[in-house]
Amino acid sequence: MAQFFLRIVAPSHRDEGVESLEREYLVKLARRAAAEVVRVRAGGGAAAEAEAIRARTGAAGLKIALDEHGDALTSAELARYIGQARDRSVPGMTFWVGGADGLHATLLQEASKRLSLGRLTLPHRLARLVLVEQLYRAMSILHGEPYHRA
């Protein structure tokens, strides 16, 4: 059976400090799931960005849209959601992070779930970092590792 995957597809904006921390979590996460951050570049507005995100998503797995109006889960709830999908033999999850204007409406409609990282507005590069850390935390919870302290 193929390894469960966790993929984040997001607009590409370089920030070495954020990317360095992101890489640290991806290395740790790779012990539990095939994990990657895929950066897309798309000029031409939100519709072009949506097409670029869709093109890098792949057909398999659940599509999760980060959206300020989505479900605000605790870390333990996110872990349960991921664990339930994995246990149902879903091959993995792709998380969509939008640019400055958020995700295009078509992506929000196509998503299996909408997830909010909270009520604060975050730049997408920080949202990416928070998300990759929470995915690592979720996998740590699922594997009974001591990283998460409730």
Summarize the structure.
By secondary structure, the chain is α/β, with parallel strands linked by helices. Helices cover 41% and strands 23% of the residues.
Please characterize this protein's 3D structure.
The structure is a single chain. The protein is of the alpha/beta class. The protein has a single domain (5-142), classed as Alpha/beta knot. Helix content is 41%, strand content 23%. The chain contains five helices and five strands, in the order βαβαβαβαβα. The chain has helices spanning 16-29, 46-55, 75-87, 105-110, 124-142, and strands at 5-11, 34-40, 62-72, 92-96, 113-116. The chain has a five-stranded parallel sheet with strand order 2-1-4-3-5. The radius of gyration is 14 Å and the shape is globular. The termini are far apart.
Break the fold down into its secondary structure elements and pairings.
Elements: E1 5-11, H1 16-29, E2 34-40, H2 46-55, E3 62-72, H3 75-87, E4 92-96, H4 105-110, E5 113-116, H5 124-142
Parallel strand pairs: 1-2, 1-4, 3-4, 3-5
**What structural class do helix, strand and pairing data support?**
alpha/beta
- β-strand percent reads 15-25%
For this structure, the CATH topology is Alpha/beta knot
Indicate the overall shape: globular
Q: List the quaternary state of the chains.
A: single chain
Mean pLDDT value: 91
For the largest beta-sheet, the strand count, sense and barrel status come to: 5 strands, parallel
| Helix count, DSSP H or I runs of 4 or more residues | 5
**What is the H/E string?**
EHEHEHEHEH
